[in-house]
Amino acid sequence: MLFHTAGLTALVAAVLTLPSVTRAPVTTKYRIDQSLSQEIDATGAGGAKQTISFTTSSFVTVRLADSLGGKAMRVVIDSLRGDSMTPIPAAVLDSARGAVFSGFVEKSGKPLGLEPVTATSPAAQVQGLLSDFFPWIRTGLKLGESWTDTTAKVNGVGADSVTVRRVSAYKAAGNENHGTRKAVLITEDFTSSVAGTQPTPSGPARIEGNGRGKGSYYVGTDGRYLGGSWQQHSSLKISGAFAPEPLPITITQTTKVTTLK
């Protein structure tokens, strides 16, 4: 009996000292197409309604590597382009090529956001284009499974910062074929609140309001994100010394993410 007990103890010790299995990093290329339409109603300040609409397309390479507690994320901008109405100058979009962002995906599949590895002006100006493109993913999602999540993201610093709080409800809605791959379809319904300040040519401005939206995306059986699309509508108000009353702002955003071969 002692012999068998000693042998079992030695076997357990040997198993415990085996190195953990670490999978090779996974690299995927994505295209992110976004559109934004914004209307500011300045009639309350004696002005007119001001409307802007533009689209952008971002091409990125995403690398996910096993790390303690989840996966380390590395995002490289391969190229960026916008239409003629895009408020970010074309020169800035061009100079953002090669910018690197780092992030982390928790073991649960929740992404924790992206930050530029090097704080350059072009990277800071295009960071918002990448902020929400990567959703909650993980392996082992089962049909009918649902969960909720609350996030708070701060864009900018000091007097030029806006906080966006978002409450999302997720559901594994179906098993489908996405292209040539089997995938789980995830749906998301969310509400958001916005509050912060931004400098303007007419002085500091306070921005606040709410929004809501929905979307859907696909997760492969291996846990790889295969793309998706979202729509959001926000009703905000901007106030400051430049207007006797807060000015209404309506914003409609759409995002579509596709994988590239």
Detailed description of the structure:
The chain has one domain (20-260). The model is unreliable at 1-20 (pLDDT under 50). The chain is globular. It has an 11-stranded antiparallel beta sheet with strand order 5-4-3-2-1-11-10-9-8-7-6. It has 3 helices and 11 strands; from the N terminus they run αβββαββαββββββ. The longest helix has 15 residues, at 2-16. The protein has helices at residues 2-16, 90-95, 121-130, and strands at 26-41, 49-67, 70-82, 100-106, 111-116, 146-157, 160-178, 181-200, 203-220, 225-239, 247-260. The termini are far apart. With 261 residues, it is mainly beta.
Summarize this entry quickly.
The chain has three helices and eleven strands, in the order αβββαββαββββββ. By secondary structure, the protein is mainly beta. The chain starts with a helix and ends with a strand.
What labels would you give this structure?
single chain, 261 residues, mainly beta, 11-stranded antiparallel sheet, 11 strands
